[in-house]
Specification:
The complex is a heterodimer of chains A (105) and B (329). With 105 residues, chain A is mostly helical. Chain A has five helices and no strands. Chain B has 329 residues and is α+β, with helices and mostly antiparallel strands. In chain B, a hairpin with a 4-residue loop joins strand 6 and strand 7. Classes of the chains: A mainly alpha (105), B alpha+beta (329). Chains A and B meet through helix 1, helix 2, helix 3, helix 4 and helix 5 of A and helix 1, helix 2, helix 3, helix 4 and helix 7 of B.
Chain lengths: 105, 329
């Protein structure tokens, strides 16, 4: 796993939805990459909101040391037992907001 | 490059800016923390790959075929300059910041390591009796994590002591069962090692402590009972915000709660547990400590001193009570 919450982002669906607008795989990949960066910020927002402020720096240190370690969830669940649901939901909302702007145009 | 692609890319970048702005608006300290630890969120995937490669781990689990393709494209051509520029401009990270602390070799003896630990703690939170600020608390937790690989904070599960620093004074021993004797505390009842040679002078609490072991006789005393009593502290649980409204909740939260007591003067640190409530406010003291705790903190002679007290996050109960000796480095 590259990032410990990757399985909650569901970037494949985004890629599929984009294919309706962008048949070129490289172009889609570039858009997915930008969205990926957005999702990291959105997820970090969820994480920072769930953790007490005192634990933010410690989490960042551990995350930076090994971004793929599933053990990060141990710390997060301590403060927010359903953190995975929150991340999944936020990722979905973030992707939806972006796709809605495309649909609207 | 199609018109459609340019339009969608513009929309994606605009959306990205909004998300980043929202994150930093909600967590204003995030940028500083990320700079300090060189965390770049939009490059975290690349960073993870490098980390995994360094660790000789498998790199075959990229998130999506699309990202694989993009990674290949970036490697082959370099990322589109305008996208990189936009992402960088909105990054949580501006430029590398050298960490505050030097790294030390591993050849230091324990006393030197203690001194290094004390220096590091005092650098981020100068010794005193005032509570830690949010920044100090985070920095102290970081130093402890790096030194002992323990997560210790001044707030756990939304509970924070009224004072996390203050004067600790000696407490009497706690009976482990009805009819226990003070002479039983000379030696550890399980290991037979000398535990408190001055137990007679220290004395034993005449009544029941706040948190009593379940033993009804000497034969029922367990190692856990002995350890908890040996390394017990008293904290002012009754002064915690919300205690009066829900004393039962806090009673259960504090019962045998693991804490980390640190003498900032010497760098001595002990994982202790809360077995009693106190001292009373009128005493001017903030914490009480059993004699072995005072000795372990370097306060055996004077029996009083300034202590930093933090919660230990140990949900699986894997951290043993007692002095921490494995200073790293």
């Amino acid at each position: 796993m590259i990032i410990f919450y990757d399985h909650l982002l569901d970037l494949e669906t985004l890629d599929q939805e984009l294919s309706a607008y962008l048949p070129d795989a490289q172009e889609r990949a570039e858009i997915v990459s930008i969205m990926d960066a957005s999702l990291h910020h959105a997820v970090m927002d969820v994480i920072f909101t769930s953790l007490p402020t005192d634990a933010h720096e410690l989490f960042l240190m551990q995350f930076h040391a090994d971004p793929g370690a599933p053990e990060h969830f141990d710390l997060l669940r301590r403060y927010r037992p359903l953190i995975e649901d929150d991340i999944r939901s936020t990722a979905h909302t973030t992707k939806r907001q972006f796709l809605d702007t495309i649909h609207a145009d | 490059m199609t018109q459609q692609f340019r339009h969608i890319r513009r929309a994606a970048l605009s959306h990205h800016k909004t998300v980043v702005r929202s994150f930093h608006k909600s967590h204003r300290h995030a940028r500083r923390l990320m700079q300090r630890h060189q965390v770049v969120l939009h490059k975290v995937r690349d960073h993870s790959l490098r980390t995994a490669a360094v660790a000789s781990l498998s790199t075959g689990l990229l998130a999506t075929p699309a990202l694989l393709a993009h990674t290949a494209q970036v490697q082959a051509q370099g990322e589109q300059p305008d996208i990189q520029k936009t992402l960088d401009a909105n990054s949580s990270f501006a430029q590398p910041v050298v960490t505050d602390f030097p790294t030390f070799g591993t050849s230091l003896n324990t006393e030197s390591k203690r001194t290094v630990f004390a220096d590091r703690i005092n650098k981020v939170a100068p010794e005193g009796t005032s509570n830690l600020t949010t920044d100090q608390s985070a920095a102290v937790s970081q130093v402890i994590k790096e030194t002992f690989n323990i997560l210790a904070t001044d707030q756990l599960e939304g509970v924070k002591l009224k004072d996390s620093r203050g004067i600790m004074a000696g407490e009497q021993h706690l009976p482990l069962y009805p009819g226990d004797k003070v002479t039983n505390f000379y030696r550890n009842r399980i290991t037979g090692e000398i535990a408190d040679p001055t137990a007679s002078q220290t004395g034993m609490v005449p009544g029941k402590p706040s948190y009593m072991s379940g033993a009804r006789s000497a034969s029922e005393v367990t190692k856990q009972d002995v350890d908890r009593e040996q390394w017990y502290v008293a904290v002012q649980t009754f002064l915690v915000q919300g205690f009066q409204q829900n004393p039962n909740k806090f009673y259960n939260f504090f019962k045998f709660r693991k804490m980390l007591a640190i003498n900032q003067k010497t760098g001595q640190a002990i994982v202790v547990d809360i077995s009693d409530a106190g001292p009373s406010q009128f005493t001017g003291r903030i914490f009480g400590g059993n004699n072995p705790v005072l000795i372990g903190l370097g306060l055996g002679e004077v029996r009083t001193g300034n202590i930093l007290m933090l919660f230990v996050d140990d949900p699986n109960d894997t951290i043993p009570l007692g002095p921490l000796t494995g200073y790293n480095p």
